[in-house]
C-alpha cells in the first residue's frame, strides 16, 4: 500500500465494491479495504430486480448470467393460516431481462464484486482492518489507521473516505450519528437446509415470505444453488432473543408455528448451525462531511423483509461514487457535494420502510388491500422490485395509510 490515495473505501461488500470500482474507473487512485478474508460469509442473499441496473453499469451482467446463482422471477406471501398468495411474477409487470434477478451466496457474489473493483483499477486488500478514521478538529477526513495482514499499523492519507463498513459503522459510531428505529427493533435467526421443497416452473426460485401463527414472527424462504435453501425467522427482538429460550429452541418453536413451512421441510435436512442477528435497524442523522460519505449498511439498514439491502447498497455505492468523481472534478469535497444524492435516496428508501411497517401491522392485510384497491397492484409491484425513485411511487400510501388506520381501529385488540 502507498501512503496516500485520492479515495479510500472501507468495506468490501456491495456498496464498497461498487463505489471503489467506479471511482477507480474514473482515474482516481483508489484503495479498497476489507477486514475479513475474501470470500467471506454474509447474509442478505436475495436480490431485488432493480439490482440489474447498477450491476450492468459495473459490467457484471454477463458474469451473473454465467453464474450458478438461482434465478429469481417472483416473490410470494403465505399467511398465518398457511394460505398462499398468487406469486408476484416480475415479468408480468416488466417483460425486460432486468425482471429476472438472482438468489446469491454472498461469499461468491461479494468475491465477484471485489475482483471487479480490482479490474477497474482499485487497489484491493482483504484481511486489512481499519482501526480508525482520522478526522481533523473540524471533523474533516484526512485518512485512516489500518492494521495490515502482516500485523503492521499504518496511517494512510486520503482526500475522501467512503465508509461502507457495514453495521460496524465506523464514522457513524465515532461521531455518534447512529439513530435506532424503535419500532423496528427486530432479531433474525436462520439456518440452511438441503432438499427443502420448492415450487415448480418460474416460481421455483421465488423468495417466499411466510407468517407464523398469530403473526408473532415471519420466515424467509430463499432457494440457493446446489439445492440449499436459506430459511430464517424474524420477529421483535424482545420476543426472539430475550424470552429465556436459546436461539435453537426459539427457532424450532417458530418453525412449529409456521404452517407454510411444514410441507416444504418434510424431507429437508438442516446443514448449518443456527445464525443470529439482532437490533440491526437504524439510520444516521448525518450522511456526509468534509471528505467523507457513508454508504451501504454504514448509512443505515431498514429490515430484511423485502430484500432491499443489497439493492440499496449498490445504489448508494453508485450515487456516492458519482458525487465523489464530480467533487474531484470541481475541487469540491464538501459535505454538501459528497452527499448531494442522499435526500433523493432517503425519499425512495422511506417507501420501503413504510411498506415494512405496514407488513408488521398485524391488523392489516396486503391481500385485502389490493382486492379493495386493484388500481395499486402495479404500484405495489414497483415497490417489491425496487422501482422507487420516481414521482408517483408513493401514491399507494395515499390509500394504504388510512386503510391501516381503519384496520387498527376496527381490531378487537384496540
Explain what the structure shows.
With 414 residues, the chain is an alpha+beta fold. It folds into three domains: 4-64 and 104-180 and 282-345, FAD/NAD(P)-binding domain; 72-97 and 186-278, D-Amino Acid Oxidase, Chain A, domain 2 (2-Layer Sandwich); 361-410, no CATH class. Helix content is 34%, strand content 24%. The chain is built from 15 helices and 20 strands. The protein has helices at residues 14-25, 52-57, 61-66, 90-93, 106-119, 170-174, 237-241, 247-256, 259-262, 309-330, 335-338, 342-359, 366-372, 377-385, 396-410, and strands at residues 4-10, 30-33, 70-72, 74-78, 88-89, 101-103, 123-125, 129-135, 141-147, 153-163, 178-180, 186-194, 207-211, 217-223, 228-236, 269-270, 275-278, 282-284, 288-289, 292-294. Strand 8 (129-135) and strand 9 (141-147) form a beta hairpin. Helix 1 packs parallel to helix 10 (309-330). The protein is globular and about 60 Å long. The model has no long low-confidence stretch (mean pLDDT 95). This is FAD-dependent oxidoreductase LodB.
